[in-house]
Amino acid sequence: MEFKDYYSALGIERTASDDEVRKAYRKLARKYHPDVSKEPDAEQRMRDINEAKDVLGDKEKRAAYDALADRVARGGRPDGDFQPPPGWDTGFEFHRGPRQGPADHADFSEFFSSMFGEAERRGAARQNFRARGEDHHAAIEIALEDAIGGAEREISLRSQVLDAQGQPRWETRTLSVKIPPGVHPGQFIRLAGQGLPGHGGEPAGDLYLEVRIAPHKLYRVEARDLYMTLPVTPTEAALGAQVEVPLPGGGAVEVTVPKQAKSGLKLRLKGRGLAGKTPGDLYLLLDIALPPADSEAARNAYEALAQASASFNPRQHLGV
What we know:
The chain has 320 residues and is of the alpha+beta class.
């Protein structure tokens, strides 16, 4: 069997702290969880990540694993025909931590089962097993309108649950989610008690939903700020104007386009973005839209403009 490098699986150094192990696991779990990831190997990567977190997140297992890795390094790292040396786990007792699931690893590798399976079962047999359920993570995509005003939506998630025998399996479940007003991309909505069930009377874990906002036909979202392209005519840009702008929460407001405005000019409407303790802003990016020369009157107007601005050379900075 293959020797598993759990530190590489989480992308961390051997000197990583417990907190760094947890952060690395959460980051990778959000990337490769089957409810979130579009990667073709997401399920296998998720199994590897879970296995690495199970070992490196437990002090006894990590210490035993490090000691074993040292022995393997001294004898040369195997290329796929690894067998644990006799008595490698002497002096270690493995048990499930307070935030881990049951002593069952149906999806884990042969390496894990050979190293920790029997030792863990011995440890579990020596204690009255009690554990809070494991937290789960998933992602949801919501409409911008729901992020602005809040909403209650039903979502379907494919998640891992335990059957009556304690074996993990995948199932699709439907949950009702309250979306608070002002929620922004990357924010988490916590559903208490919707993670894996607890053991020995302990409560279930929680489900954390990472918010993603679907693309909108008018607005682009960056954190709590919103961006919108505002088309203006050449006349409005040159002479200045008052133009009407739709607001993301409904309604409209008049804004001033300054004289001699250029495409790309950014106008800021303070506090008109997503709600929050510090509300975001709405930024308007000016885009000069040219009227089509599709009539004699329009062509005559363009010819008159060309004559009136004959000395204007927009390519002068190019040296031509």
